[in-house]
Specification:
It is built from one helix and 14 strands; from the N terminus they run E-E-E-E-E-E-E-E-E-E-E-E-E-E-H. The chain is globular, with a radius of gyration of 19 Å. The protein has a single domain, classed as TolB, C-terminal domain (Neuraminidase). The model has no long low-confidence stretch (mean pLDDT about 75). About 5% of the residues lie in helices and about 40% in strands. It is mainly beta.
Length: about 180
């Protein structure tokens, strides 16, 4: 699942690897997926959480997947963005627009039940873009053991300074002798 379009008109798409040989494109737009971004599928794949501005500000919604026919707002006052499910699917985490990390207890059987969101911690300076809500990319994540993985925002920099170095086969690099000083 991925977000495409513009920030003002985001849409969700889904990759269909098994069907790629039958179609010209290995992906398709999700029906009724307008103004949806930063989607997160539940661990069982039958529910989707996403952010949308359909109410005028970013809010987090949960809906059946792939039906997308009965969205329920999860975030309350203060809006919400960038939802992520817990590994067991019983909690949904998201950023409130002021930067607080929120948690919502979720029961999905026999019907969807959502408990009022509670604040876990202030999230100032982590998860680039999380407070603004914009963008469909994942700005933070949850490890399988429940720890939060957040990237720290840095001071503004030039495009040339924004880079990531990826070292492949680093174990082979360790085997080579170090150069003499």
């Amino acid at each position: 699942m991925f977000t495409y379009g513009t920030q003002l008109a985001p849409h969700l798409g889904i990759l269909e690897f098994a069907a790629a040989a039958q179609h010209a494109l290995p992906w398709r737009a999700l029906e009724r997926a307008r103004d949806m971004s930063a989607a997160s599928l539940s661990p069982r794949g039958d529910w989707i959480a996403y952010q949308s501005q359909q109410s005028g500000e970013y809010q987090v919604y949960v809906d059946r997947f792939p039906g997308l026919d009965d969205p329920k707002q999860v975030s309350g006052d203060g809006g919400g963005s960038h939802p992520v499910w817990s590994a067991d699917g019983r909690e949904l985490f998201f950023n409130r627009l002021d930067g607080a990390m929120m948690a919502v207890q979720v029961t999905i059987t026999p019907a969807l039940e959502i408990v009022r969101p509670t604040m876990l911690f202030e999230n100032k300076g982590y998860g680039r873009g999380a407070r603004a809500g914009g963008g469909g990319s994942r700005v933070w994540d949850l490890a399988p053991d429940g720890r939060f993985l957040l990237s720290k925002e840095s001071a503004p920099s030039t495009a040339a300074e924004d880079s990531i170095v990826v070292v492949q086969n680093w174990s082979e690099e360790l085997k080579r002798p170090a150069p003499d000083p």
